[in-house]
Amino acid sequence: MLQTRPRVALFVTCLVDLYRPTVGFAAIKLLEEAGCQVEVPEVQTCCGQPAYNTGDRATAKDLARNVIDAFLPYDHVVAPSGSCAGMIGHHYPGLFGDEDPHYRGKAEALAAKTHELVSFLTDVLGVDAVKARYEGVVTYHDSCSGLRELGIKAQPRKLLGSVDGLVLKELPDSEVCCGFGGTFCVKYPDISVRMVSDKAKDVRETGADTLLAGDMGCLLNMAGRLQREGAAVKVRHVAEVLAGMTNDAAPIGETK
Amino acid sequence: MVHLTSPAFKENATRALADPGLQKALARTKPQFHGKRAKAVAGLPEFEQLREIGKNIKNHTLANLDFYLERYAAKVEEAGGKVHWCSTADEARAAVLRICRDAGAKTVTKGKSMISEELGINDHLESHGITPVETDLGEYILQLRKEPPSHIIGPAFHLNREDWEESFRESHTDLDPKRVFTERRDILTEARTKLRSRFLAADVGITGANFLIAETGSSVIVTNEGNGDLTQTLPKVHIALASIEKVVPTLEDATSLLRLLARSATGQDFSVYTTFSTGVRRQGDLDGPEEYHVVLIDNGRSNMIGTEFQEMLRCIRCAACMNHCPVYGVTGGHAYGWVYPGPMGSVLTPTLVGVDKAGHLPNASTFCGRCESVCPVKIPLPKLMRHWREREFERHLTPGTVRTNLGLWAWFAKRPAMYRAATRLGIGALSLLGKGKGKFGWMPLAEGWTRGRDLPAPEPGGTFMARYAKTRRNGR
Hints:
heterodimer; A: 256 residues; alpha/beta; Rossmann fold; 2 domains; four-stranded parallel sheet; 13 helices; 8 strands; 49% helix; B: 476 residues; six-stranded parallel sheet; four-stranded mixed sheet; 24 helices; 12 strands; 11% strand; elongated
């Protein structure tokens, strides 16, 4: 058989790597089912956002160079996160100015082929349905970077609509930030907790039994708050549901 | 000068979060601003193109600022007005005082103006025996209460109706103490009654300016109460206070920006009053001032030209950024600790008072980007806040613990093999600690997280990279 499958490099993201490996495996499954040949470059650590958003541009550039060199050879780069895909696809080129035209060019080339997982499936590969089943009423939070930097809004809803048994109930103010904001959540905990409490209230009021989103940072934040409040809402990354892998791991912050 | 509490942003915010009155007032943000703006924008299909036009008008002007300012000034003088060029706040205060003294002024009426807050004009006039009277309803009550504005277009947005009633009863002691306030109109009527005689008695009227038009030498103000018009037409002397970036080339440019301004600010297609003032009263004019002064203020703006912060000078002060900011939405404007709150303030304040004092502001953002998405002139506010964080990092203003933690993390993150080994150990330990629990209610060094939320434990079974390597070895 002719080898025409696109070679996709999975950018796992540090939070999926450390906190939620099932999301990485779900991403691989979804990409392979859509006809991709998936590889996981071994030298990846982090896209550099913690440094970039703390103002440490030098470290952000060092980390970006690592990512650029490791991922440039592939046809596409896919991350199960709007935030990290936004960092590579939206911010990397701006890190390298006129003093480094070589890496600027490489960063632009990488940016052009970097995608968030769900939008890659729908917009690039033309996937319009998945083979998965999930019994539950689900609500969806639009993470800020994915929404505003990458325009991800309809794509997850489209694929969730094809999941058997799943009922989607829209979250009011789903476009309002959950209060995570990377290091913001620990630098300004009072404000962050207030923001995520407002979010938790909205989530609870939908009556949904499951909350989904496409970014681990937001998910950890919202799960942490919902559980502190004792809310019976399961929190998961959208890829787990789309890949039909909800039996592979308990909901975030739960044991079964 | 305005009292600066930006260094205490964190404490200010904590206090604000615990203030039930403020929280009640802030809950109005959504019904009052979000929906109305969205509706106004939806009603104008070319709104996105208009944003691009607005951005280009401002960029073009800023690139030729000296030219347009000189042209504007020449036109003002042609129409019998006078331009006072002031590089600092001190010079501007002195100019205003001089004009008022020359007019023998005892009372000065004022329209709403943020630059006037920046300059601290009221205190300056008062300390020299001249009485300033705020005529914008919001500013009027703030003057009674001796409070600064908390919002750039709704200065008293932090107050509730009961606060209004209380302040009016306390201050207007000549009125019947048994009078009842049943609706907003009653407050309005009382303020109107009180202000009417002030308008007529004023010797000088001070307004701000939303735009200065180089083509005609006009200043433009937009209001919903009409107070600005009374302020600038009734007294013999009109002073328009404006910072240098308010200038636009032509009348047409100003009208393009006006189409963006009201929609972005209050969701109106147009403000109730949009008034163009050009020079002094001419022979045959029915009204208008005998003297028309423009106090043109730099106060740090020109330092931004040619830097990464130049884009901030496009700001037309519509307040859409703060109206849609989730941080402003829970802290209110006073927490920011200076004249300009919200995202635009978080970029502007460090420029004007120093990032060493206002460093919290650009850090207190989740970079959610909603401000940028509603900005009528497309200012990349998160990017500019990040530039401030870079300046802080370069100048070692970033807190030591943050630098140390970041440095440690970066050392590993730049060395994938070491990172892999360290994270495997770390996550292994965390998994073990969280075994059977799924989450932590408290975690040392993560107290900021765990104070108000649980910390989910990592999924058992090791990191993705470790598990993936294993599946590859086993031939999957």
